[in-house]
Amino acid sequence: MEKTGDKNSKPSLGKETRDLLKESGLKARKSLGQHFLVGRRVLGKIIASGGITKEDVIIEVGPGLGVLTLELAKLAGQVICIEIDSSLAANLGGRLSGIDNVSILNRDVLGTRPSEVLPPGETRYKVIANLPYYITSPVLRHFLEAEVRPCLMVVMVQKEVARSIAAIPGKMSLLSVGVQLYGRAEIISAVPARSFHPVPKVDSAVVRVTSYPEEIIPAGCRGSFFEVVRAGFGSPRKQLINTLSHGLGMDKENVSGRMLEAGIEPKRRAESLSVEEWCCLWRVLKKDEGEGECLH
Known about the structure:
Number of domains: 2
Structural class: alpha/beta
Oligomer: single chain
Number of helices: 12
Shape: elongated
CATH architecture of the largest domain: 3-Layer(aba) Sandwich
Radius of gyration: 22 Å
Strand content: 15-25%
CATH class of the largest domain: Alpha Beta
Largest sheet: 7 strands, mixed
């Protein structure tokens, strides 16, 4: 924990957070998964991982008490905060009213398209956030599948979820494929539970996802692609030939032949496939369905 004895040093974020909550009559809402970041070193790692410049527009999800917001505002051109908690949004809006490059929106991020909140004509932005555990996957999917996708995401998530997001073939999951289809994922730093107030029951990690400049699968074909991936992960411990034939309603001989055509051994399991292999497999499994441009 950070020292507070030196009167010239900054007070700990933990004390600042507790004092602010008390003064404002606010408290962390368990129903919204609120855990406020109180680790100053962790805060520094998040900021450094974003590579933020004055050219950047940042969308921050769940700013809470604004600890991260204030640091982002010092570096970015514009910070757009989306906070679902009306009490926190009002408090933050009042406290940061004098900072002209920060805007606070009291909205549900999952019901908000990035294009609705970005400056007119802006298509390049970054997402930086301490995400509530219970909406991690939906929020990632919301932005990565958006019409206007972020060029970079730096997010705090549950440690086990971070491992899944950044997994390599052999440990892949539906979440791994769902994120890595859109960008390169990496774990930046582990974050102990004591770095938050109130202290959660699990550790966290900072994850960075750098979006690919071009989509691997066209937007109109994602449904077809993920139908195959979901079928493959239907029973992760079974061989792919079995899970795919069952999940897609195809006979095993047909599935086996197409897997071999894609260069994939039928006895392999879903967790062993890379994103590239899933793309190859999807193309041969769906080649008779007339997907047009998707299958070239």
